[in-house]
Specification:
about 70 residues; mainly alpha; Arc Repressor Mutant, subunit A; globular; disordered N terminus; repressor; DNA binding; transcription; Homeodomain-like_sf
């Protein structure tokens, strides 16, 4: 799975591991937290990884892919 995601994201296995670890801790990093994660991984703070990962997690949980739905 990591190699499959790696191909589409262009991130290394180490970058994905760090992002996944942070996602498990905080699904909505903001401000300084996001800046520190981005610096550690070597990606832009605007990187869509967390947003896409959240949509994937919500789908796995049987929730709509976006927050704020009536179905939440």
């Amino acid at each position: 799975m990591a190699s499959e995601h790696k191909e589409s994201s262009g991130l290394s296995d180490d970058q994905l591991r760090i992002l996944e670890e942070n996602f498990r801790t905080n699904r909505h990093p903001e401000g300084t937290s996001l800046m520190l994660i981005a610096a550690e991984v070597g990606v832009s703070e605007e990187d869509k990884w967390f947003r896409l990962r959240m949509a994937k997690w919500r789908k796995e949980q049987g929730l709509p892919p976006t927050i704020g739905s009536v179905l939440d």
